[in-house]
Structures are given as C-alpha cells and as structure tokens.
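Summary: Need help interpreting a holo structure output

Steps to reproduce:
1. Submit the protein chain below together with the SMILES for S-adenosylmethionine.
2. Request a joint structure prediction with the ligand placed.
3. Inspect the structure token block that comes back.

Expected: a single structure record containing both the chain and the bound molecule.
Actual: see attached output.

Input attached:
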Amino acid sequence: MPPGNEVIHEPVLLEETLAFLAVREGGAYLDCTAGTGGHMLAVARLAGPGGAVIGCDLDPAALEKAERRLEQASAEAPIAHWQLIRSSYTAVAELAGRLPGGKADGILFDLGCSSLQLEDPARGFSFSKDGPLDMRFDPDSGPSAADAVASLPEDELARIFRLYGGERRARAVARRIAAEREKAPITTTARLREIVESVTGRRTGRIAGATRVFQALRIYVNSELENVERAIPDAFDSLKEGGTLVIISFHSLEDRIVKHSFKRLEALGSGRILTRKPIVPDQAELRRNPRSRSAKLRAIRKVTP
Ligand SMILES: C[S@@+](CC[C@H](N)C(=O)[O-])C[C@H]1O[C@@H](n2cnc3c(N)ncnc32)[C@H](O)[C@@H]1O
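--- attached output ---
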C-alpha cells in the first residue's frame, strides 16, 4: 500500500489523555496499548529528550508501524527516549520496572481494537471483509475465534454472545452455529456473518446484525475483561506518588470494571479519582473520527494515604 494510504489509527481523546496524564518534561511514561503509536508519540514529544516512554502491544504488525513512526519522529526532532516491547499489558509491573526509577509518572490503557486491525481482512476482526476467523491481538498465540466457534458448547456460545455482546437472540444464534458446524467447519468471517444474519437479519435497529456476535467473540478470544481487571491494581502499584493512570474503554462492561476498580483504590485512600463522570469525545472528534463514539476515559491519581 502506498505510504499516503497507510492505515494509521487515529488516537482517541488525545488532548484529554495528555491533560490527565499531565505529561511533563523529563517524565517516565508507559503506554500499555501502543497500537500504531499515536498516543505514545504525543507523550514522547511532550516528555522531551530528558523523558522516557515504554510502549507495549501484543500485535507485531502494530508495533512495526509504531516503530517506524517513532523512528521518523525522532529523526525530525528530539523526543523522549522510547522503547517498544511485544508483551501483554498484564505484565505492567515488569514493564514499568524498566523505566528509569522503576515506576511511572503516567500509565495509559487505550483498550479495544485499532483501525489497523479492523481494516486488515487477514486478522478476521471485521465482518465487513471476508477473511480467516481469527480475531487474536497476538496472532501467534492462543485459540482463534474459529477454534472457539468449533469447540465451545452451544450453551457457552450463547452465554458469551449475551454477556459480551448483549445479543438478544444469543441462544438462537448459538443453536444455528452448533447445527452448521456439524455440516462443515466455520472458518471465515463471511461464513460466520451469513450464519448469524440468518437468525438476526442483516440489521437490528441501527447496527448490522452480526456486530454484537463479532464483538462478543473478540472479547472472549482475547480475555479482554479478565486482563483489564487483573492489570489495573498492578498498574496503579507501578505509579510514582502523584502519578496518573488513564484508561479509555469502549465497552460498558469494560468501563464498569474501570469504574469499580478506581472506586476500590479511592476507598483504600491511595487514589483520587479525577473523573467523577467519564470523559467522552466532543462533537468535533465524533465528526472527525466516528469510531471514537463509544469511548469513555477515566483517570485516577496516586496520592499519599
Ligand atoms: C485501540 S488500540 C490502541 C491504539 C493506540 N493508542 C494508538 O494511538 O495507535 C488497542 C491496542 O491494544 C492492544 N492490546 C489488546 N490487548 C492487549 C494486551 N493484553 N496487551 C497488550 N496490548 C493489547 C491491541 O493489539 C491494540 O493494538
């Protein structure tokens, strides 16, 4: 693809993120979901040549793009010392340990999936393009969406579609999948879409019929809710006093986990919530980047108990 058409993920709530992270010159920051490096590069510029930024992601294709972007930016003007690491953010304590001083002034999680992943049919995240039914952030490890669809009991599929996708016809969709996989394995996004839509129809209200089932499978395949729940306390422990943890989520269950985890930290006296209500994109951002529409940002500062 020519460089001008390269898919770059537009960073969501960027100004708000930088403001809550209170990025300062010479500070040390961790971007737990570096993606194509949009937020990370902005942090590295503000932290300046005396600062340090570590970015991690599970996706090697995203890391490659981020690397090129940061290399190019640092050739143009001095930015913070930076490093990209292929890792799960569940290793957040170990990652922060690599920063100067071993703790962070600010940690960012920008959850969910990037435009790069959505728009590459080979990754199988999107039902609008045919491709292998994969959906793994780390394409080299763990069972894919096709494995889940082939092996999970019908009841478990229904539970996943209802819980993670809010799919009202979850049981009927699971039943249809169970019947179809007896005839032939379901290995492509187009085939799954066809099966789901044979139950839901092409649209339910304003959204495409397969949206909820695809979202549910992605969340399940990548253990997204379990990972974020596990990582928040470790990320908070990895902050310096006065440091901030910023989390952008795109799913109501994810946002609920963030909200309750922050409340627990505040009740312990070691955190002060900076966002009583979640911050959402303004009209200008929604117009520029419709994919930001379900984003919710929450931030908490570490304080002396
Ligand atoms: C919304 S994108 C981040 C975009 C990024 N902020 C930017 O500006 O380009 C979310 C990223 O999180 C990554 N991700 C998801 N789960 C992860 C995990 N457990 N550990 C590390 N990265 C993860 C995905 O691969 C994806 O690249």
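--- end attachment ---

Reviewer comment: The two ends are 53 Å apart (CA to CA). Residues 9, 11, 33, 35-39, 56-59, 62, 88-90, 110, 112-114, 137, 222, 227 surround S-adenosylmethionine (CB under 6 Å).
Status: needs-info
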